[in-house]
Amino acid sequence: MSILVLGASGQIGAYTVQDLIEFGGEKDVIVSSRKMANVKRAMDDLKLTERTKLMELDANNGSKVLETIRNEKVESVVNCAWYQTNLGVMDACLKGGATYTDLGGFFDTCLKQIELHNKWKDAGINATIGLGSTPGMTNVAGAAGAKRLDQVDSIDIVCAWGNTLPVQEAGWPGYSIRTVLDEFTQESVQWLGGKYAKQKILGGEADVLMPDPIGKIKAYFIKHSEPATMGKYLNAKNVTFRIGFPKTDMNTFLTLRSLGFADTNPLEVGGAKVSPLDYLTAMYQKGIAEGRSSPPKEKFEYDMFRVDCAGKKDGMPKMVTYFIVTWNDPDRGVSSARDTSVPPSIVAHWQHTKRIKEPGVFPAEATVEPEAFFKELGKRKILVDEQTTTTTKYY
Ligand SMILES: NC(=O)c1ccc[n+]([C@@H]2O[C@H](COP(=O)([O-])OP(=O)(O)OC[C@H]3O[C@@H](n4cnc5c(N)ncnc54)[C@H](OP(=O)(O)O)[C@@H]3O)[C@@H](O)[C@H]2O)c1
To answer: How many angstroms does the Cα of residue 252 sit away from the middle of ligand 1?
Structure first.
């Protein structure tokens, strides 16, 4: 009875496979992407070719995914391909009776996935969606904070990253360049006063204090799925999501946008037709593959998340804050790939071993047990700190 990983040649998917095998102890992992050469290269780089079954499989080809689930007796699917494939893969899982998890559905796709809840509930299968660093770890942190409050007024999430190199060049982003350009071209939707509120692109500028070495940083509202689900599932009045981009990265992304790299219309160049976004994606994939085969030996780059959960406990104001910090690991690769690839591995393993089994489609905050999850993260050097501020009144 196996686990199938889709999009396993990607920056995240390859490390999800590594974690499923090395930490989850999964023995029967089928590893796939659209191109055998890509997935083979990823597994060769991680020295996992002998321990996995490689397959060429397009996540958009629903009948092929279903056939694979049936023929290979797949019990759990982890979808690490681009989020546009989520709905089709879920359909195949539902028909084939496999549990499902993924890296997130941005905002709109995530809501469409949640709408499938009753069908999955009736079929008796669990889908827990949006597992990565954020969405993913931050949703679980929000759930942990909400558990410690009687009333949740706000959950404010901030994501930031950076490096300590003396030359501050912008590197490849830690997540799909396609998603980055979505974030820079689409208005965000936040959960404010108990309802969805559209915000302008890069609106909501705020100064946020992150752990060292970041310190104070400017952060902006970004379209993401956390506000799509957490307000409703955690009964919070406000849920916001911001990114504090390092200055160099922010300038790079703004420049790519203004040069037209978000354009999906094909352009004819030297007889070939390719869209600027697809061209940029291909360059990105090449860069990621090169980085994987020669991981940096020094600890120099980090990912950081801050989740502030504010509300009341026993009638008094209380704030629970989570700081989640990951540094790159000389053995296990870059920080952003590690902290995004581990959560879907933990959840897929828990689904496979029936630790998560509630039938239906749920976001991470609804099914993942926070403290046990944080301990699993800690084993992989993804560090979660919880800080609490309580109020005592002497009048
Ligand atoms: N929740 C989070 O914290 C978080 C963080 C980062 C990224 N993400 C999301 O995760 C997704 C993947 O991100 P990434 O950074 O790993 O991107 P990536 O490096 O571009 O990898 C995606 C991989 O999926 C494969 N793929 C694309 N379309 C496919 C299809 N139809 N069928 C099968 N495989 C397909 C591609 O490989 P082939 O060309 O070999 O098929 C590619 O290597 C994105 O949607 C991103 O937004 C979420």
So the answer is: 21
Write down the pLDDT at residue 52: 97
Nearest CA to ligand 1 atom 48: 103
How far is ligand 1, taken at its centre, from the CA of residue 7, in Å?
6
> Quick one: tokens of 257?
């946008």
Residue whose Cα lies nearest atom 4 of ligand 1: it is 132
| Cα-Cα-Cα-Cα dihedral sign, residues 82, 87, 88, 93 | positive
DSSP string, 72-106: TTEEEEEE-S-GGGHHHHHHHHHHHT-EEEES--T
For residue 232, the Cα-to-chain-centroid distance in whole angstroms is 20
Q: What is the pTM of this model?
A: 0.93
**What is residue 165's predicted lDDT score, i.e. its pLDDT?**
74
Query: For residue 268, what pLDDT is reported?
Result: 93
Given a cut of 50, the residues of the chain with pLDDT beneath it are none
- How high is the pLDDT of residue 335? 81
Query: Best mutation site among 103, 134, 180, 222 for ligand 1, i.e. most ligand atoms within 8 A of its Cβ?
Result: 103
- Selection from 169, 170, 179, 173 nearest residue 262 by Cα: 179
Q: Residues with Cβ within 6 A of ligand 1?
A: 6-7, 9-13, 33-35, 38, 58-60, 80-83, 85, 103-104, 132-136, 175-176, 179, 285, 288, 340
Nearest to 138 by CA among 347, 308, 381, 345: 308
Residue 162: predicted pLDDT: 87
Closest residue (by CA) to atom 41 of ligand 1?
Answer: 34
pLDDT computed for residue 192 by the predictor: 98
Please give the domain boundaries of the chain with CATH numbers for all domains.
2-132+337-370 (3.40.50.720), 134-334 (3.30.360.10)
* Per-residue confidence (pLDDT) for residue 167, from 0 to 100: 63
Model pLDDT, residue 168: 64
Q: Whose CA is nearest to atom 29 of ligand 1?
A: 81
